[in-house]
C-alpha cells in the first residue's frame, strides 16, 4: 500500500466511515496467505511456508488466478476451516466500514473435490457468520456459486441444494455461476435459473469478464438480477443503454479485472464511463487476498485514479445498499446513515 499524505488519510477515514455493502466477494478468495499456511499445517503432509503461500498468489493471467483459487479450495476440508475463514473475512470487512456482505461460496468446487456432504461445512460458515455479527455488527448472506465449465448437471446439484437448505437457513439468499466463461455461456443454465427463481432464490451471474458483450446478454437472457463484472459491456452501445435503462446492478471489480489481465491497464478500466453512462454500478473486491485490494482500496482507487468525488462515493455506497438483497426496512435505515456520513 502506498504512503498517504494527510488529505489521503482523511479521505480513507471518510471511506471507512461510509456504510457500504460488499456484493461481489468470494469466501475462498478472501483467504490470506497467512491463513492458507494455517490451513496447510492442518492438512498437508509438508506444510506450505509463508513464502510458498505467497507464491501461489503470484500469477499474471485469468488461468493463473483459477489455479490459485484451486490451491486454496483444496485445503478447505472441515467445518472448522470454514468457520475460521468466514469469521476472519467478516472481521476485515467490518474494519473497512462494510455493514453487509453477500458472499459467493463455491459449493460447486466442494462437490468437485468429492465432498458429498456440504451441510457440515456450511454449519462452520454459519458459526463464523453469527460470531462475526455478534462481535462486529456486520450481517451477511450466502450465494451458492456453481462452476459453469463443470456443466449443467453439476450446477443443478448446487442450485437445488441452495433451495433445499434455504428452508432452514434464511442467510442463503441466491445462486450464481462463476468459473471460466470462455468455455461455457449462460444459455445452458436458463431452465435451472427459472427453477431457482421459483424456489425463492435471487439470481446472479458472472458475465462479460473474460468474453465479450455476448456473455452479458446471455446472463440477462437467463434472468440474472445482478451481473458480476460486465467489463466488456463498454463495447456494445445497445447493451449499455439497456443496462442503464433497466438499472441492472453491475458488480464492478476494478483491481480484479486488472490483476487477471481481463483489463490490461488500470487507466483503461471503464468504471468511470459506466458511471457517467448512468449504469447502476457497485464497487467490490472479488477476491481481496488474491488481488491485494480490499473494498476500502477499491473506493480509494475510484477517488484517486478515476476522479470520483466524495459525493460520488456516497452514491456508490448507496448503490451497494439498494442493489443488495436486504429487506426494504434495513435498506432505508442504511441509506439514511450514508446521507449522514461526513
Walk me through the structure.
The chain has a single domain, classed as Metal-dependent hydrolases (TIM Barrel), CATH 3.20.20.140. It is of the alpha/beta class and 342 residues long. 52% of the residues lie in helices and 14% in strands. Helix 5 runs parallel beside helix 7 and helix 16 packs antiparallel against helix 17. The chain is built from 17 helices and eight strands.
Q: How are the SSEs placed, and which strands pair?
A:
Layout: H1 6-17, E1 20-26, H2 33-43, H3 50-56, H4 62-73, H5 79-95, E2 98-105, H6 107-112, H7 119-136, E3 139-147, H8 152-166, E4 172-178, H9 190-198, E5 202-207, H10 213-221, E6 226-229, H11 237-246, E7 250-252, H12 254-259, H13 271-276, E8 281-283, H14 288-291, H15 295-304, H16 310-322, H17 328-339
Parallel strand pairs: 1-2, 2-3, 3-4, 4-5, 5-6, 6-7, 7-8
Helix pairs in contact: 5-7, 16-17
At a glance:
The protein contains 17 helices and 8 strands. With 342 residues, it is α/β, with parallel strands linked by helices.
Taken from the alpha-carbon principal axes, the silhouette is globular
Cα-to-Cα separation, first versus last residue: 24 Å
Q: Give the topology string: H per helix, E per strand.
A: HEHHHHEHHEHEHEHEHEHHEHHHH
Q: What percent of residues adopt helix (DSSP H or I)?
A: 40-55%
Annotation, overall tally of beta strands: 8
* Overall pLDDT level: 94
Radius of gyration: 19 Å
Tell me the strand order in the biggest sheet: 1-2-3-4-5-6-7-8
Percent of residues in β-strands: 5-15%
Count, helices: 17
- CATH fold node name: TIM Barrel
